[in-house]
Amino acid sequence: QLALEQAQVGLKLAEANLAKALAGPDEFDIAAAEAAVESARAAARAARAAYQDLLKGPTEAQRRAAEANAERAKVMLDAAQAAYNEIAHLPNAAMMPQAIQLQQATIDYEVAKANVDATLAPPTASQKASALAQIAQADSAVVQAEAALARLRKGISPEDRAILEAQVEQAQIAVRQAELALENTVLVSPIDGTVGAVNIRENEFPNPGLPAIVLTNDSDFRIVLNVDEIDIGHLAAGQPAIITVDALEGVELTGVVSDIAPLAGTGGLPGGTTIVTYQVTVDIDPTDAPLRAGLTAAVSIITDEARDVIVLPNRVMRIDRQTGQTYVERIEDGVPRRVNLELGLRNEQFSEVISGLEVGDELAVRRTDTGELLRQQFFGG
């Protein structure tokens, strides 16, 4: 919330700067800029005058003042010397006030003489350079003040306007980012439903591997199943499906394939065998059946459909082990005779017969016990 308020303040400032620039200067702004120009020009004149005074050297009054100070210091030194001479013969003369006064008078006189020399000496190169630098600085200030006054009178330039407008846009982006960050602190469910689990706790770090809240939608159920890679090529979105639920005996539901995962996963079989599978989502059609999330269901997806065709149970057909030809035995004149079949659609229980049989044909079905089946599988026959 604080970040949002700060961004909003920044936006207001940027908008105010742009509005002020577009409105143009008032008479007070012009007057202040003109005063700044005059002040800068006066400072430049003063810098030039100081440089000329430096080149001319000391005035007569400055020279006389320096020399007078030196003469006064000499008089004070002579007086201090006379006073000291009167007590110079004493053993402790160096510790008496006259000695200290003589020392101070000597220092004052040396300082005064040095001041005379400095006053009368011509300007040094460093003094000239310093004075010229002050002139350059003052001239630069004049140029800046005059340029500011000119810009103020001319109004905002296209470049400056573009910069101010960009600052407003930048502030607007900052506000939107702060608003989004604030919105992201609130969890909003994308659907209506019932809370099934809450995996977050106050003052605790959330588990990145779990959703914060699990919702169940009681009006929109779907099934996600893994389909073997061998069968996935027969499936497509939009195909109808028939669903049976273990907990709802005798209830048959309908649905439709809504999504097939583009990437494969893997599944395991007993014995450690790994198979490649694809996730297929089947949306269940609206129903009054008491469905619940997590129920076990069986799904049959209709990949193709044929009507008014001959269908045989797979258990009555035989396969020639030499040629791989599928055949049955049709009864003709009371005798079983082999008839080769051409098959169409198939599933786990039935096969479509395209040619080889007609409606009403009688077939001979040989019953084979488990021992016979094993013998045929392992020893042939």
User: What portion of residues is helical?
Assistant: 40-55%
Domain count: the total is 3
Radius of gyration (Å) = 55 Å
Q: Count all strands and give the number.
A: 15
Mean pLDDT: 87
% residues in beta strands: 15-25%
Give the helices and strands as they follow along the chain: HHHHHHEEEHEEEEEEEEEEEEH
Notes on the protein architecture:
Helix 1 runs antiparallel to helix 6, helix 2 (27-56) runs antiparallel to helix 5 (125-154) and helix 3 packs antiparallel against helix 4. 46% of the residues lie in helices and 22% in strands. The longest helix is centred in the first third of the chain and has 30 residues, at 27-56. By secondary structure, it is of the alpha+beta class. It has three domains: 13-167, no CATH class; 220-301, Elongation Factor Tu (Ef-tu), domain 3 (Beta Barrel); 310-379, conserved putative lor/sdh protein from methanococcus maripaludis s2 fold, CATH 2.40.420.20. Strands 3, 4, 5, 6, 7 and 8 form a six-stranded antiparallel sheet that branches. Strands 10, 11, 12 and 15 form a four-stranded antiparallel sheet that branches. A three-stranded antiparallel sheet has the order 9-14-13, with no helix packed on it.
